[in-house]
Here is the input.
Amino acid sequence: MDNQKAAGIFFLILGLIFILFPMFSIELVSIIVGLSLVFFGISAAFMGYTLKDNKGVAIAIIIIGIISIILGLLFMFYINAISFLVAFQFYIVGFIMILFGITGLVSRASKISNFTSILVLLMGIVAIALAVFAGNNPLYLAIIIGVVLIIEGVAYLLDD
Here is the structure.
């Protein structure tokens, strides 16, 4: 079995888990958001440390990285993923991504960095939109994630 078919089966199974067990899925989202924030924070802090052109931007990026690491650890280990926290997590991730995108645009390091900063900024806006939706009912968010995973799994399986 090739990797694409295996990924399709994995996405199908994961999608069904999200639909059948939405509370478990919400906890999983909390762990994933926490891990994402930790890894993002580590990479941001490292990037800020290596940035030598603009000390103010470097310090801002390092601070964003440290805050991201702390919040990621909180989401992974100390915060239960009850309904209002899922939306809160998306708000935090969205705002951090927006700040990081703006910081990247202000630093004007290169065209690739500007393009990446714009993408991070847009994804931050999408994360805030998801926060609004998740705040209304996070169980629906888990079900939507499950449906998207199933669609992705079917697409992988049908792709030749």
